[in-house]
Specification:
This protein is α/β, with parallel strands linked by helices. The protein has one domain: Metallo-dependent phosphatases (Purple Acid Phosphatase, chain A, domain 2, 4-Layer Sandwich), CATH 3.60.21.10. It has a six-stranded mixed β-sheet, with no helix packed on it. A five-stranded mixed β-sheet has the order 4-3-2-1-13, with no helix packed on it. Strand 5 and strand 6 form a beta hairpin. The radius of gyration is 15 Å and the shape is globular. It starts with a strand and ends with a strand. It binds zinc ion. The site of zinc ion (ZN) has 7 residues, from loops. Zinc ion binds next to loops.
Length: about 210
Amino acid sequence: MTLTIVALSDTHSLHGQLAIPDGDILLHAGDITRQGDIADVVEFNAFLGTLPHRHKVVIAGNHDFCFERLPNRCRQLLTNAIYLEDESVTLEGIKIYGSPWQPWFHDWAFNLARGEPLRRKWALIPPDTDILITHGPPLGHGDRTTLNEVVGCADLLEAVQRLRPRYHLFGHIHEAYGVTRNEHTTFINASSCTFKYTATNPPIVFDYGL
Ligand SMILES: [Zn+2]
């Protein structure tokens, strides 16, 4: 039996411009808002309510300031999704873990210094995670910027190589949208918005064999 999973990220309040394929589970890897306004969360939640997927899982990204500043309020507003912040949920036998943190970059939300502070967050990922969702990419997968620099988190790569989730979903580096693989894990940068913030990258759909 397989489940159809639909992955998107970095919609930045432009979700209405995307054609969202049907599926069983919808996953969003953060940056649902433009600049972290509560009103954007309300609107995004209403949009989720119109989609047919049985389960919807969302994490926050560096633009989603309100989830860092008003966590309880934002969780309450997101009635049409399961919000994961350094926690997991098991859906139809698939263990999904979500975390919003990324390497520090100009005082955005959910920023931590590279090294020990991020390592401590990745140490929380359960070893039996099937799908890992983070906002930022690991080093070397979906992390090459327009300046041709790879900016992913080395400690996150180390964690993924050790824990071997079947899928690692993220966004953040819009221009690195696409899929890569290593021996154990498929890496998906599902950024819906491009570098210029046009929502033209289609959601990435995959079948998950149970
Ligand atoms: Zn973004």
